[in-house]
Amino acid sequence: LFASVELAPRDPILGLNEQFNADPNPAKVNLGVGVYYDENGKLPLLKCVAAAEHQMLEAPKARGYLPIDGIAAYDKAVQGLVFGDAATASGRIATVQGLGGTGGLKVGADFLKRLNPNAQVLISDPSWENHRALFTNAGFTVGTYPYYDAAQRGIAIDGLLGALNTAAAGTIVVLHACCHNPTGYDLSAAQWEQVIAAVKARGLVPFLDMAYQGFGQGIAEDGAVVQQFLASGLDFFVSTSFSKSFSLYGERVGALSVVCASKEEASRVLSQLKIVIRTNYSNPPTHGASVVATVLTTPALRAQWEQELAGMRQRIKAMRVALVEKLQAAGVKGDLSYITTQQGMFSYSGLNAAQMQRLRSEFGIYGVDSGRICVAALNQHNLDAVAKAIAAVI
Length: 394
Ligand code: LMR
What we know:
Aspartate Aminotransferase, domain 2, 2 domains, two-stranded parallel ribbon, Aspartate Aminotransferase, domain 1, 16 helices, binds (2S)-2-hydroxybutanedioic acid, single chain, alpha/beta
């Protein structure tokens, strides 16, 4: 039966974890996957999460099946966080609990495939490696729109708008709401207005992926683009994730929200999303979403979360500054200001695949072949070694 099954390549990001774990080098550093580690290189358990879990333990509950669309209080809290109270009250947003941000994308992709099977999908060039694979596996043809201008180290805004302005009506455009993965370059509010105008003029379907809210400038600042889309009157999709912002990676806690024209339309869309979920994994798990809902709806825990998230954001920014200093000390010449201009967890280093592979094989430093390194995994103990290794392969 399986004689013809081919060995698949490792996942370009999660496959690095497998390689990293198998590497006996005691000095190895994992800058591959987008995960925040604290200054001691440890995955943090946020205090707000521990407090919510403590509360939950004091009043333990049996675990029945959740509704297909998840915990109602969680879905409502997600809407409040992502869209604000006024938009939530309108009733025109359908939100379902998702298995992380990836799960939200997948439910959206499957729903869109039923709705418009011939639509094309456009992702940014470059994009998160899994965007292409996920939409391809959902049955779509996936193309790209220009995004990164390597020569200018910034956004290829003319190319991006040009691609949108020539896309066929109904084309699904996957956009990174903040902390672009992998480049770290985000559109300004004015550029988002241009994108929204093009999307509107051409009748495109915007799908925002917001996996890093709070890691750029702040929760509201990073989510501002959602308000711009709301104000445009467009229908749009938003997948959100609490993997990073709550350090709950293994709980797979995220959501998909679909902004519709009316409350009545939203209830029809929700009914279809529920079919997608029921026929994929039936209904979502309880723990992670209960934790997030507890934190978001308990004022003291919510304040604590915002403070802890700000702490992660500030430490990443400090690591960007420190990386520039260490690279300069290691002899790297030229303008390194791009490292502090980029935001979110990643720096798009400009190193090529061969250089990234040398970093792994010679120095035990793991980054993605695209040149992406996770700044959120740097700390005072590994910075020197990382900077020297980068200097050596340049
Ligand atoms: C990443 O880009 O590293 C993260 O989003 C983790 C993942 O699932 O790839």
